[in-house]
């Protein structure tokens, strides 16, 4: 876990100084560099916006009164940037001492301000405090991202877990419902995996699961595809914007990649290496059906693949309602 006192997007921290007065810019640079910070100087608000977008500094020291675009306007634009960092503190430097100017600085998005003539010890302390806040924010953000990742991943295989599968299936179902695009699902089961565990031991079984998971991720390689551990030796592959023909191509790729692993399986009744059976389903989401029906279709197709001798895939589209309503359970 990163150290709160050392974690920063830039090392050392980067300060962006915007002031139209060259002498003031030099003084600010020297004061910040004496504290060990990196410094970039610009002379107006427009240049500040460009530098901010490119560099994403840790802190912005922004003069309130500048030609063309004043500091208040620049500060507002920074806060409204579409891809802007929501936690880049801006310290306004102003010679305006009236209460309305101070309120305007905070209203435009400034975190703090210092008045001219600058009290340099005060400036250094305020910048130091802002840097600490930035570091704490990024530390907490990184920690939160890691917790989210752990909550959504399977501890053994490091792919998505069942909880993440359920979330993503519903998310993509509703997105593709709006866009009237297809969604495919592959359920994949390792053949005779209990026998494999009994023959080679659970550590080898765990290693087998990890290898199969990696090959599934390789076969479903688009960023929108999701491979999840569905339960035990069963995996699921969600393929957004994919019709049955496309899903079949992924299923064929999975078969080829698992075969290429050539993991010995002396207890298998269909091969001398580890194989998989798969059920493939696809549909265009509509208001008349729900995600559970897509899962049911893939599960029944998987049952048919097993009943037909394993080490193969079968397909079933939701449009085939008569077969779907038979409710044949998987084995």
Instruction: Note the total helix count.
Output: 11
Largest sheet: 5 strands, parallel
Distance between the termini: 43 Å
- The rough form would be described as elongated
What does the radius of gyration come to? Answer: 29 Å
The topology string of helices and strands comes to EHEHEHEHEHHEHHEEHEHEH
Strand proportion, as a percent range, falls in 15-25%
* SS elements, strand count: 10
Side by side, the strands of the main sheet go 2-1-3-4-5
Q: Helix/strand-derived class?
A: alpha/beta
Assembly status: single chain
Let me know the average pLDDT.
Answer: 88
Notes on the protein architecture:
By secondary structure, the protein is of the alpha/beta class. 48% of the residues lie in helices and 17% in strands. It contains 11 helices and 10 strands. The protein has helices spanning 22-34, 45-55, 71-80, 99-107, 120-152, 162-179, 193-200, 202-219, 244-261, 291-307, 321-324; strands spanning 14-18, 38-42, 59-63, 90-94, 112-115, 183-190, 226-231, 234-240, 276-283, 313-315. The chain has a 5-stranded parallel β-sheet with strand order 2-1-3-4-5, with helices on both faces. It has a 5-stranded mixed β-sheet with strand order 7-8-6-9-10, with helices on both faces. Strand 9, helix 10 and strand 10 (313-315) form a beta-alpha-beta unit. Helix 7 crosses helix 8. The protein is elongated, with a radius of gyration of 29 Å. Mean pLDDT is 88; it is low at 1-7, 320-324 and 327-331.
């Amino acid at each position: 876990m990163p150290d709160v006192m050392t974690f920063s997007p830039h090392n050392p921290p980067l300060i962006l100084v915007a002031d139209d007065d060259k002498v003031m810019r030099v003084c600010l640079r020297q004061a910040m560099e004496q504290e060990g910070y990196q410094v970039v100087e610009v002379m107006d608000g427009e240049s500040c916006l460009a530098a901010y977008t490119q560099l994403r500094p840790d802190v912005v020291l922004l003069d309130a009164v500048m030609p063309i675009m004043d500091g208040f306007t620049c500060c507002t634009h920074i806060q409204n940037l579409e891809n802007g960092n929501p936690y880049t503190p801006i310290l306004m430097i102003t010679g305006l001492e009236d209460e309305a100017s101070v309120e305007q600085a905070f209203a435009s998005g400034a975190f703090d301000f210092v008045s001219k003539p600058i009290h340099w010890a005060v400036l250094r302390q305020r910048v130091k405090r802002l840097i600490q806040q930035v570091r704490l924010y990024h530390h907490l953000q990184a920690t939160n991202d890691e917790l989210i990742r752990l909550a959504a991943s399977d501890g053994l295989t490091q792919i998505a877990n069942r909880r993440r599968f359920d979330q993503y299936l519903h998310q993509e179902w509703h997105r593709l419902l709006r866009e009237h695009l297809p969604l495919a699902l592959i359920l994949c089961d390792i053949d005779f995996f209990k026998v494999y565990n009994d023959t080679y031991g659970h550590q080898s079984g765990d290693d087998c699961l990890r290898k199969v998971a990696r090959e599934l991720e390789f076969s479903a390689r688009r960023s929108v595809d999701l491979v999840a551990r569905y339960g035990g030796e069963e995996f699921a592959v969600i393929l957004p914007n994919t019709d049955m023909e496309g899903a079949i191509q992924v299923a064929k790729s999975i078969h080829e990649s698992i075969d290429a692993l050539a993991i010995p399986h002396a207890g298998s009744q269909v091969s001398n290496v580890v194989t998989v059976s798969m059920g493939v389903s696809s549909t265009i989401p509509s208001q008349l059906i729900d995600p559970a029906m897509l899962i049911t279709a893939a599960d029944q197709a998987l049952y048919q693949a097993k009943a037909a001798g394993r080490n193969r895939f079968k397909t079933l589209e939701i449009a085939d309602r008569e077969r779907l309503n038979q409710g044949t359970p998987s084995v």
